[in-house]
Amino acid sequence: MFSKACEHAIKAMIYIATQSLENKRVKIGDVAKHTGSPEAYTAKIMGTLNKQGIVSSLTGPYGGFEINAKMMKQIKVSDIVFAIDGDSVYNGCGLGLNECSEEKPCPIHNEFVKVRSELKTMLETTSVFDLATKLQSGEVTLVR
Amino acid sequence: MFSKACEHAIKAMIYIATQSLENKRVKIGDVAKHTGSPEAYTAKIMGTLNKQGIVSSLTGPYGGFEINAKMMKQIKVSDIVFAIDGDSVYNGCGLGLNECSEEKPCPIHNEFVKVRSELKTMLETTSVFDLATKLQSGEVTLVR
DNA sequence: TTTTATTCGGATAAAATTGTCATAAATAAA
DNA sequence: TTTATTTATGACAATTTTATCCGAATAAAA
């Protein structure tokens, strides 16, 4: 569904959000530990997310990553997916055709658009804040 | 969504089905031409589908691939996806956790299962025959 | 029985993705 | 200003996926 990089990104964002809610800036090593993702790879992914402006970072001692509490409610999972995997999830053809539209559809186009539109809606209505509070409450887990 | 191999597989099955409906056995070169997929790779994929029993093949002159007309209505897209990509589409965690269930869910588990269940239903209710007749009618395309 | 056309299957290659490493840049504190 | 700590980033490595190649096996026709 999503690339591995995208999975790492979503998990990292959720963990950082929980810490930001407690006004704690987190180092990449902490992120890796709490998400079970490879540290260096996650660092690279965070660079992309930082450039896209959906996470902020500070170098040096007492540095690390954080997400503004207000932003957190505005950032949706769809933003993370788009930042890492691009629009393939939303616009790509189910059979991988370069051009596949209402006018020139592939055989599964009509069946596919319906399901994908629901996936899109789901991602667009789920905020990082929603997921972070879920994680804080202990009802869900990031590792295992 | 699906692997490239799986896309090739679905396209190949649909094309072979249209030919089988006209009692024509097709060679792998024909399949590749009409699906835009690489011939040798498709050949390998067909081997897997053949072993799984969702397509039949005959070696030698006048050989090739075909799908029994009765079977064609029973074979669903879900069977092809399962044969090539396994059950990851149906059971895999959205965040890639090894264990993710109702009891120990990941943060997006509940949102995810709903969408995926609709995808599953869609794939399970769409037969190769349905798609082949659509392609025959000219309302959809396999290449581009 | 020989020839010819085709799939089968294993070895290999190429490309993409995932992951690591080392060095540079930034920044805060001493 | 120096030092310690942390992110930023580009080069490299490993793994997985995608794709190719070629000889073996099979089967129909000559």
Summarize the structure in words.
The structure is a homodimer of 144-residue chains. Chain A is mostly helical. Chain A has a single domain (4-137), classed as Arc Repressor Mutant, subunit A (Orthogonal Bundle). Chain A has 8 helices and 2 strands, in the order H-H-H-E-E-H-H-H-H-H. Chain A has helices at 4-20, 28-35, 39-51, 69-74, 77-85, 88-91, 109-125, 128-137; strands spanning 56-58, 64-66. The first copy, chain A, is elongated and about 55 Å long. The two termini of chain A are 19 Å apart.
The percent range for strand residues of chain A is under 5%
Q: Supply the CATH superfamily name of chain A.
A: Winged helix-like DNA-binding domain superfamily/Winged helix DNA-binding domain
Q: How many separate domains of chain A?
A: 1
> What integer is the average pLDDT of chain A?
96
Taking all Cα atoms into account, the compactness measure Rg of chain A is 17 Å
